[in-house]
Amino acid sequence: MKKIFVSGAFNVLHAGHVQFFNDARALGDYLIVSFPPADLLWKLYEKKSVLDDADKMAVLKSLSMIDEVVLSTDEDVALSFRSAFLQTAPDLLVVTTDDLYLDAKRRLCEETGAQLVVLEKTQPEGRTTSSTSVVDRIKAPLHVPLRVDFAGGWLDVPAKAIPGEYVVNCSVSPTVSLKEWCYRQGAGMGGSGGWSVLNGWDPVGSELGLGVGWQDPAVIAETGACVWCSGPRPVLDFKNTGEFLRGKMAIYDTRVKHDTPGLAALERNYAKIAKAARVARLGVHEKDVSVLAVGVQLSYQVQLEEGMLPLERIGDSVAHKYCGGGHGGYALYLYETTEAREAALESCEYLYPIEPYCRTFGKDEPVQWEEKYRERIFRQNVRKDNF
């Protein structure tokens, strides 16, 4: 009888583990699986066990390809399973190509006469799964805000970052979820970043992979009115709740497709973008809509110079600009008073109210438009699958 031995944390059992067990079992007749108990897992690897030891043992023993489950008890980062290995005397020690301790395991096999087999890590049906990705998905919020950017857009793209300059933005409600998405898709308010956060993916990495910046997932995760340091990764300069903006923001649906990644390589005036961000930063710091409006309007002038179509003034707005750099989608409108915003909302059927959003500690809650705006947007047939 040929015995096979495998070890690991197996912290969250998933399809990748099952594939590994099947691949290992195919090499012999009797599969032994070893894992460190929760206290040793933390002590050696600083990993928190998701399942308690009894549950993990029960789940592993229930798998048909596994013949025996033992504990790894040695306080050795590379060979925590050494005692269990010597006691069970397997013929094969099976590891994967990404194993961090191959040299130590090779020496153990030379010492005991066992054979070391290194397998390619495979996934069933071409899927990629890891314990980390499962935990990230579990931890992902159910509802997230999207965002409006006031100034400094493109200075969050690592290649365009300017040390000492800023990116200024604010998370806004209504919130979105995997079930309900009340905005147009691809409309300049950080939807791809929000989608990544909701799915438990690496949101910053996902955005940078598209060739754009990190500001969307950064402010969606942080919430509030935020000022960020321009640079390769998000570093928060300061934030406030954004309450000074309540009742004073709206978004206008231009009904033109927005495409930020496709326009990332265009030439633009980064010095003017930085100047606008410095003014907007002051507006957020002083909680002054009129100062913030100057920064927003300076950003808009750069957008016009880049070739974006002029936006109409709607009501008594004090500033407006496109949300993002994609030459379409939604545009942000600022108003000095709630009354001015309400009058504008009544005058334009494609204008919608948004509010600053700062997550209450420990809460994950949906925030919706009032019914008349929900009816309006559905009446216009604007849903997640549209443009």
Question: How does this model look, in words?
Answer:
The protein is an alpha/beta fold and 387 residues long. Helix content is 35%, strand content 20%. The chain has 13 helices and 13 strands. The protein has helices spanning 15-25, 38-45, 53-62, 82-88, 102-112, 131-139, 191-199, 203-209, 215-222, 270-286, 289-306, 338-347, 371-379; strands at 3-7, 30-35, 68-71, 92-96, 115-119, 144-151, 166-176, 225-229, 235-240, 249-253, 317-322, 330-335, 351-356. The strands form 2 sheets. Strands 6, 7, 8, 9, 10, 11, 12 and 13 form an 8-stranded antiparallel sheet that branches. A 5-stranded parallel sheet has the order 3-2-1-4-5, sandwiched between helices. Helix 7 packs across helix 8, helix 7 packs across helix 9 and helix 10 (270-286) runs antiparallel to helix 11 (289-306). It is elongated.
Range of strand content = 15-25%
Helical residue percent? Answer: 25-40%
Q: Low-confidence stretches at least 5 residues in length (pLDDT < 50)?
A: 382-387
Over the alpha carbons, how many angstroms does the gyration radius reach? Answer: 27 Å
Number of strands: 13
Q: What is the average of the pLDDT values?
A: 90
Structural class: alpha/beta
Main beta sheet = 8 strands, antiparallel
Oligomer: single chain
Q: Helical element count? A: 13
Q: What is the overall silhouette?
A: elongated
* N-to-C span: 62 Å
Element pattern in H and E = EHEHHEHEHEHEEHHHEEEHHEEHEH
